[in-house]
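Recall the central idea of this unit: under ordinary conditions, the amino acid sequence of a chain determines the structure it adopts. In this exercise we apply that idea directly, starting from the sequence alone.
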Amino acid sequence: MKYVESTLLAGERIVCEGHPCFWAVGPRITLSLLLMVWGVLIGTMGTSPLAAVSFFTAGLGLFGASLLAWWKTEFAVTNKRVVARFGVVRRQTVELTLARVESVRIEQSLIGRIFDYGSLVVGGGGLIATSIPGIANPHEFRRMVFLAQAAEEPVPLRLVA
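Accordingly, the structure predicted from this sequence is:
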C-alpha cells in the first residue's frame, strides 16, 4: 500500500498523484552507468581486477539506490491536503492542509524546463516554505492544488514521467 493511500483521512480522496520525473534522477543514473563502464574497461585491460570490481559494484549500488529512491518517493494532492514522501532509510514527509497553503511557487532549471520537471515550493500560514523536488509537469500539479483549494471537482490525474 502506498504511503498516501495509507494516511487518507475520513472523506478524503486523492485528486492528483505521482512520482518524481525520471529526468530528475538522471545525473545519478549517468554517474552510476559511467562507474560501471569504467569498471568494465579496467577489467578488460586486466590491470587491476580489484579496482574493476570496485568501480562496477559502486556503480551498480548507486544505480540501485537511485531507482529505489525514485520508486519510494511519492506525492499527491487530496481534497484536503498536499502530501509528499521522500527517502528509504531516512524518510521525510510533507503534509500540508489545503487551508494553510497560500502560495505555490515553481522552480525549474533550464534542463527542467526542457524535460518538464521542477520543484514546487509550498508556503503559507506562517509555515516555512517547503520544497517538493523533481515533480513531473509541475504546472499541472500546481493547478490541481489550486483546484482542490477552490473545492472544484477536478478529474483525477496521475503524473508519472
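Residues 26-68 form one domain.
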